[in-house]
Design brief:
This protein has about 230 residues and is an all-alpha fold. It is built from eight helices and no strands. Helix 2 packs across helix 8 (about 205-230), helix 4 (about 55-85) runs antiparallel to helix 5 (about 115-130) and helix 5 (about 115-130) packs parallel to helix 7.
Length: about 230
């Protein structure tokens, strides 16, 4: 695949990222991009789904839908698109050695196009935003995905165009999966819309939604402190 169309855009953004290089930011980005950092968020989302649904069929459908988001977004990229396009990651591209400075000891030998992190996180963000139906939750969970996307560019794991394509593909997958989920879910329950100051329009307790939001902010704050004490 010819990526010359993206070259000027990609190199311009990568040069800008390089100008902000800093040990604290390097450490923070590595913490944010690490999948283990977000395990508490995934667990908490699972707990909230269990608390706010009435049957195992409903819970199972949501879990299966989330897994489909990951399967058709990131896994498709890793197993099919990346081996076909064979685009080198920025940190492995010999043509970029003069304009970027990679984080010490950071390595990844797999291919770059398109970003599985972007596709995975944005597909989940779109799916759960539509599922939970709360404006503040949507803003926070989309911001969570975008932070993950930023880390991939900042650490030179992906070109900006890899991330943009990942976002477009992930968002499409998340929306399509939710569409089919809604069709099936309507057969399992008669309560699709809630009018209450205690619940979202799809029936999720606002206290649980608030707890998820606090979990995201709490994780970011912990990462900031860990990055700070790591460089001290």
């Amino acid at each position: 695949m010819d990526f010359s169309f993206f070259e000027v855009f990609d190199q311009t953004v990568l040069e800008m990222m390089g100008s902000f290089g800093d040990l604290f930011v390097d450490t923070f980005a590595q913490l944010m991009t690490n999948g283990w950092t977000w395990v508490p968020l995934y667990v908490f989302l699972f707990v909230v789904v269990i608390k706010n649904n009435e049957s195992m069929a409903q819970i199972g459908l949501i879990i299966a839908s989330a897994l489909l988001c990951v399967l058709f977004s990131g896994v498709l990229s890793d197993l099919l698109v990346k081996p076909m396009t064979m685009r080198l990651r920025p940190l492995n591209d010999p043509a970029l050695t003069s304009i970027i400075t990679t984080v010490e000891e950071l390595e990844n030998s797999s291919y770059s196009f398109f970003s599985s992190h972007a596709a995975n996180t944005f597909s989940l963000a779109i799916f759960f935003s539509l599922l939970i139906g709360n404006r503040w939750f949507t803003m926070v969970i989309v911001a969570w995905s975008l932070i993950n996307c930023w880390t991939r560019i900042y650490l030179y794991m992906h070109f900006p165009s890899d991330v943009l394509v990942g976002l477009l593909w992930g968002g499409t997958v998340g929306a399509i999966v939710y569409f089919f989920h809604k069709k099936l879910f309507s057969r399992l329950t008669s309560h699709l819309h809630f009018i209450s100051s205690q619940y979202t329009r799809t029936g999720y307790a606002l206290t649980d939604v608030s707890a998820i939001i606090k979990m995201v902010f709490g994780t970011i704050i912990v990462a900031i402190f860990l990055a700070f004490f790591t460089i001290c």
